[in-house]
User: Fold this.
Amino acid sequence: MAIYIGNYIYENRQLKYILTDYGKIIIHTAVEYGSVESAQINVTRTYTRQYNLTDRLGNVRKELQDKHYLL
Assistant:
């Protein structure tokens, strides 16, 4: 189930997309659990910008992606 709050789209209570004027930002979240002794949890987020190329009527004709890895 998706929840829409302004330009933010949540799925399963996690932020998945941010809509922008030029396309959207896709958020990928990876969770790694450490050993039981260390009780460490590592969360890595990858942000992918998706640009939409549109025609004169505003229809999307091509999508371009640019990946950025942030911790």
